[in-house]
Write a structure and sequence with these properties.
The protein has 91 residues and is mainly α. It has one domain (3-90). It contains 3 helices and no strands. It has helices at residues 3-29, 35-59, 64-90. Helix 1 packs antiparallel against helix 2 (35-59).
């Protein structure tokens, strides 16, 4: 697989994890009753996506310059995760 195809796959995985984080944040902010099962399901889906991202990054480790933008995107996703964690810590 070429570098561009690998970056596209990585981008798709990051977007999937970001969407899961956004869905969870919206549900929490809207006080939806997810229950433990709902939260666990969201977390399992995000974990699967993060494992895929780790695999993609490993495949692209020699192309460090190109990955800088994707790492910045991961930082943004981490910020959403921090908001969720902060909310849980206040409950």
């Amino acid at each position: 697989m070429g570098s561009q195809e690998e970056l596209n796959a990585l981008s798709a995985r990051i977007t999937g994890v970001e969407k899961k984080l956004e869905q969870l944040a919206i549900a929490i902010q809207g006080n939806e009753i997810l229950g433990i099962e709902g939260i666990v399901q969201h977390m399992a889906e995000m974990q699967a996506g993060l494992k895929g991202i780790a695999h993609d990054v490993k495949d692209l480790k020699d192309d460090k310059h190109t990955l800088k933008g994707w790492i910045a995107g991961l930082g943004a996703a981490g910020g959403i995760g921090g908001i969720i964690g902060n909310w849980f810590s206040k409950q």
